[in-house]
Backbone:
């Protein structure tokens, strides 16, 4: 997954262009910039690659999720359905808006189970947020049908799956809004950064204003711009955007390497009795950033994870016990531990996660191991890794 493995001359060149002008901010200073508008260049390139009309680049993936929902009018007391397996950023972005994160089970896709989503819908639900974890997607067709039937938004968190697709559409472009992260460990990185994509002009305009203190961006005098509504600062800097411009040009090369390495590793474990692969929905193509597989039960999965680590096969994750990605360790959310007071809606409406039954998620997660696919591996390294992986899994 990490684009940082191959940062090089093209990234340096783009950053140098910005440093040569000295204009590190994405807005204003037109005369000094010598024609360099890196954030805008990145937005145009993303719109093209993702086949959507609009892109707003922001300061992080978390910011992208927050701005995306804010742009569509999500606010205090609105409920957002998200999966038990995700990154903490998902519920952070919801809470930042005063909205209520409603967790729902995952299935063997390792993403939102449409049946669990149906059960979680209430009169207050405003958003279904599938999170395309570890390079592969939720059943977007089923989720869109549910969203349409209830007139609620589908917001895709595609932070871990940039470059994958569903039904011929790039991940992120299928829902009403889609979000990407370019943090340091994502498929393409710009150090810190993120983006939201949409075909909805109103959401886009709102996102453009909201992410820059509500500025309406009309005219050439920033100081004289009006503020049609309250906003915040989620801007990206030109330095970060410049790295993103270079990395996006390399996305399809990175994806090609990931797919190649994934193929060799998958081949090595496909026929091992008791090992099954994570399900990819029929119309989906992953971005191949992780190889995720199920062991027959939790005990064997724990044993396999330990054995892999002892055999020197690094980069294997057992998410079931992970602090950041799985509901079992989110005590700060379950107990609502915050520095200051939370808005009343969240305090009153947050489901009781201490007692809620997520045994369906636990059933899949307890058996799952994911291996990070690196793009910098040599062919010999991948082959050696495949042999060791097969050996260790066969033995346990
Ligand atoms: C990385 C990530 C985010 C947040 O991105 P940042 O840029 O680190 O804020 C959100 N969701 C998922 C699934 C992620 O992996």
Residues:
């Amino acid at each position: 997954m990490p684009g940082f493995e191959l940062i090089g001359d093209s990234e340096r060149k783009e950053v140098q262009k910005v440093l040569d002008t000295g204009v590190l901010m994405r807005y204003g200073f037109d005369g000094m910039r010598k024609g360099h508008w890196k954030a805008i260049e990145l937005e145009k390139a993303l719109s093209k690659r993702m086949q959507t009309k609009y892109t707003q680049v922001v300061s992080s993936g978390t910011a992208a999720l927050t701005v995306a929902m804010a742009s569509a009018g999500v606010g205090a007391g609105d409920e957002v359905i998200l999966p038990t397996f995700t990154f903490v950023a998902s519920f952070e972005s919801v809470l930042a808006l005063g909205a209520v994160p409603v967790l729902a089970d995952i299935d063997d896709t390792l993403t939102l189970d449409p049946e669990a989503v149906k059960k979680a819908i209430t009169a207050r639900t405003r958003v279904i947020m599938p999170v395309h974890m570890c390079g592969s997607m939720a059943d977007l067709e089923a989720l869109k049908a549910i969203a349409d039937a209830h007139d609620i938004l589908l917001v895709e968190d595609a932070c871990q799956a940039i470059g994958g697709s569903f039904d011929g559409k790039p991940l992120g472009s299928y829902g009403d809004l889609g979000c990407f992260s370019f943090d340091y460990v994502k498929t393409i990185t710009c150090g810190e950064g993120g983006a939201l994509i949409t075909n909805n002009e109103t959401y886009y305009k709102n996102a453009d204003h909201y992410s820059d203190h509500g500025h309406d961006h009309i005219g050439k005098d920033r100081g004289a711009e009006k503020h049609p509504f309250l906003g915040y600062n989620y801007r990206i800097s030109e330095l970060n955007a410049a790295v993103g411009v270079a990395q996006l040009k390399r996305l399809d090369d990175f994806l090609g390497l990931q797919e190649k390495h994934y193929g060799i590793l998958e081949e090595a474990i496909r026929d091992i009795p008791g090992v099954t692969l994570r399900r990819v929905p029929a119309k989906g193509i992953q971005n191949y950033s992780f190889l995720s597989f199920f062991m027959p039960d939790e005990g064997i999965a724990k044993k396999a994870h330990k054995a892999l680590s002892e055999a020197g096969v690094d980069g294997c994750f057992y998410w079931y016990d992970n602090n950041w990605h799985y509901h079992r360790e989110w005590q700060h959310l379950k107990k609502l531990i915050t520095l200051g007071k939370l808005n009343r809606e969240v305090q009153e409406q947050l489901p009781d996660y201490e007692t809620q039954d997520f045994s369906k998620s636990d059933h899949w997660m307890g058996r799952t191991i994911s291996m990070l696919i690196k793009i910098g591996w040599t062919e010999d390294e991948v082959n050696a890794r495949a042999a060791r992986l097969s050996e260790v899994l066969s033995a346990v």
In short: The mean pLDDT is 96. The first strand starts at residue 54 and ends at 58.
